[in-house]
Specification:
There is one protein chain. The strands form two sheets. This protein has an eleven-stranded antiparallel beta sheet with strand order 6-5-4-3-2-1-11-10-9-8-7. The protein has a six-stranded mixed beta sheet with strand order 14-13-12-15-16-17, with helices on both faces. Helices cover 24% and strands 33% of the residues. The chain is elongated, with a radius of gyration of 23 Å. The chain is α+β, with helices and mostly antiparallel strands and 453 residues long.
Length: 453
């Protein structure tokens, strides 16, 4: 089903192994390897045509996603009704297969995915973190018009070609000729891996209706039926709190609440968390620990240091704690209300941490922040690593986004096929995972390349 779980922003991050499934898992692993080791700058096939204007919001009576694997006699596929709004970064897929109904709501605006099924008055739900981008159902810039009057899904269409040589990716798009909005009738992607084989990924649309979508469609099911999402990847997380005197006690308490929420969003173990506070001096709140209760108690018991702002010393101290961890992914989250007024240059200190493999997120609170300093401390791309909120109470609004962006896992967000599941349902969940992982690489490739046109 359409959606996305990962992007190309950090190809060095480790990827969690896919759950046990059919033989297609091996292909998924190769696709993961191909896309996560892709060069930072991809190059499109030379084009003769400019971008095609596509509708940003529409519904489709049916959208079908198939993955064709060499040597497999049947495609792996899922299908359902689609509601889609690219500008709002949301989509909903309603599927009725194998005797049960399942709904997936992808909220890229909140970095969350909800998947649920309802039968006999009982609702089973799962919640996962999402990574942008939402799959762009449009003909990307740089495409070439290669044919006209081609029949696709029973409609007369224009045909476009597009590709990324560095990824061994070639795509064909078909758009309806009969309507002005250039509605997408279908798309086919061929992904080659080291010239060994080619996987074909197909998307087909039937009954496409452009126009605004009812926002209520993108809400999770009513009632407290969906669990809170958790990042289950192996990662060392460092929280660095500004405890300087410019922060009111009530606001410092809000910062601690944010810290607790972030810790709860990671599964400890395998994740480990270290916490440090800085002001004129630096205080270690806790070294790396994989005990959730221990870390949360340490944050809740943290006493504000007050006095000046020696951000560089805090970065250096927490960086050393993170380097003591064993996880391949290391993340530092700096929460501050302003600029440093003591010690060394925090941008230089952050540069050292980044050179040691630590991904740095910078969170600025209030109107007194130094935006240049905040951006300088953060990792690239800045749009994913710099956060600004108006006050400490607003920190809760960025929890999902910052955890989703930092989480190294590439999880299949499906309902557990082993819980009250028939074999057909388990097979469908496996197919959904394969389609989701392949599709997410294509989404990342398309949006990355389009931005560089």
């Amino acid at each position: 089903c359409p959606g996305s779980d990962h992007n190309l922003r950090n190809p060095k991050k480790s990827m969690a192994a896919a759950p046990a499934m059919n033989p297609a898992a091996a292909v998924v692993g190769l696709l993961v390897l191909a896309f996560t080791n892709a060069p930072e700058h991809v190059h499109a096939v030379p084009a003769a045509a400019g971008p095609v204007v596509m509708p940003h919001a529409f519904s489709a009576d049916s959208v079908t996603v198939n993955v064709k694997i060499p040597g497999s006699p049947f495609p792996i596929g899922v299908s359902g009704k689609l509601n889609y709004d690219y500008d709002a970064q949301v989509q909903r897929i309603t599927m009725s297969q194998f005797g049960f109904n399942q709904i997936e709501v992808d909220r890229y605006d909140k970095s969350l995915r909800y998947v649920w099924a309802t039968a006999f008055g009982h609702t089973e739900c799962n919640t996962c973190y999402l990574k942008p981008p939402l799959f762009p159902y449009y003909v990307p810039p740089g495409s070439t018009l290669t044919a006209s009057g081609v029949t696709k899904n029973g409609k007369v269409c224009d045909q476009y070609s597009w590709g990324v040589r560095d990824l061994g990716l070639n795509a064909t798009f078909w758009t309806y000729q009969q309507v002005a909005e250039h509605l997408l009738a279908g798309a086919e992607f061929q992904v080659g891996y080291n010239s060994l084989f080619t996987v074909t990924f197909e998307i087909g649309f039937v009954g496409v209706h452009p126009g605004p979508q009812d926002t209520a469609l993108f809400d999770p099911p009513p009632g407290d039926v969906c669990p809170a999402p958790r990042c289950a990847g192996s990662i060392d997380v460092g929280l660095l709190f500004d405890g300087s005197g410019s922060i009111a006690s009530a606001d410092f308490d809000k910062a601690k609440e944010f810290g607790v929420a972030v810790v709860d969003a990671f599964q400890l173990p395998p994740a480990e968390v270290a916490v440090t506070q800085f002001a004129s001096t630096v205080g270690r709140v806790t070294a790396l620990s994989n005990n959730n209760a221990t870390v949360i108690k340490a944050i809740q018991s943290m006493v504000q240091l007050k006095s000046g702002t020696n951000t560089a010393a805090g970065i250096a101290a927490l960086g050393q704690d993170l380097l003591a961890g064993k996880a391949g992914s290391k993340v530092m989250m700096i929460i501050t209300d302003g600029q440093h007024n003591q010690g060394g240059d925090p941008v230089a200190a952050a540069a050292v941490a980044k050179s040691q493999g630590i991904e740095v997120f910078a969170v600025g609170v209030g109107s007194g922040i130094d935006k240049t300093e905040l951006s300088g401390m953060a990792s690239d791309p800045k749009g994913l690593h710099v956060f600004e909120v108006s006050n400490y109470a607003a920190l809760k609004n960025i929890t999902s986004t910052i955890v989703s962006t930092s989480c190294p896992s590439d999880e299949a967000c499906t309902l557990d096929p082993n819980v009250n599941a028939k074999p057909a349902r388990a097979a469908r969940a496996n197919a959904q995972h394969v389609a989701s992982v392949v599709r997410s690489r294509l989404a990342a490739a398309m949006t990355t390349n389009s931005k560089q046109e």
